[in-house]
Amino acid sequence: MKIEDLILARAPREQMAARLAACCVRPDLECFYFGCIETSGHFFNGPGGTTKVRALEHELTTLFKGLDGTLCWNSPRSDRDRYDRRDETEGRAFITHRGGWTALAFWDRSVDRRGACNSAFFVEGALTFAQVVRVARHRWPKIWARFTFPVVEVDVQGREVVSG
User: Fold this and answer.
1) Nearest to residue 141, comparing CAs of 44, 24, 33?
2) Are 90 and 149 in contact (CB under 8 A)?
3) Angstrom distance (rounded) from CA 104 to CA 119
4) Taking the model in full, what pTM does it have?
5) H or E element at residue 98
6) How many C-beta neighbours within 10 Å does residue 27 have?
7) Which residues of the chain have pLDDT under 50?
8) CA neighbor of 35 nearest in space, from 96, 86, 109, 102
């Protein structure tokens, strides 16, 4: 929804402020992606060449205590839970802030149809859901275009977050 639409709809100031905040982040920030690109297999990808990407992958894996499926809203909390049945509805996105980075992760079977497949986007800084989405759409348009499901923010219990 554009800010003009919010004005015409006489939306609350909080809703307009949230929309403006989403627009105030530069969409060209570096954004790294963990997931499937064109075939099965989750890999860490980003700008800056292999050496930089591998070093950052190691750093973020340590910082977030894992990348593969561990950042989704209902990620396994132990190895025992890893293969238990759980809701893996695609697009239910969870934000994690840690060590100056923001991660946006959700279940995603747009390439690999097996269970426990996910996508995660990483941007340096403390960004909101809308801001990370803006950067990820800009930096990874082909990845984002393949999502046939809505990507919505959820809390740790999986309830949709309604932004002002």
Assistant:
1) 33
2) yes
3) 8
4) 0.80
5) strand 92-98
6) 13
7) 78, 80
8) 109
